[in-house]
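As a warm-up, study this chain.
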Amino acid sequence: MTHGIVRHNTPRNIPGAHGILTAMVMTWTARALEPEELAAVSANSKVVVDLLEDEPPHPKLAVDLDTAWHGIHWLLTGTAYDAESPAGQAIFGGDPIGHNLGNGPAHLLDGRTVKRIADALRNLSADDLAARYDPDSMLAADIYPGFWLDPAVFEELLRPRYRELRKFYRRAAKNGRAILTAIL
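Now compare it with the structure written out below.
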């Protein structure tokens, strides 16, 4: 829905087919770290960018929520930025690591936190999130990217990306992995 919009250093609103879109596309990506990758990141934060910008992403170690990240977070927490609950930490949790990647630094979640997040997400199905979907409230809360009134958004964007996120955290928790996240 935001494909083809050029990334700019400063956001600016432009009218689009689905309401107001922002010219700066922000995507959320995460990587479950192999033990040697965690050691490398801990020793040298410059490794962070290489792991997060791995193209194509490793199918079992990475997830990319594209622009669905903020909508999913809102559906998990009912807030724009709360990261106190385990579900809230799925998107905004962890300790900052490395330099600013354009939308802040990456964040590192340890294995215990990943397990708590996976447990919280296991208890929240995509249908639970569908019941929380409220486009007017999401617009009022300024949830990115802002095209929530489109009736297909939940089924075509949020539901499939949330399922990917749950699977990603479940797999990472099962394998005791730390996770590196970033908004790029």
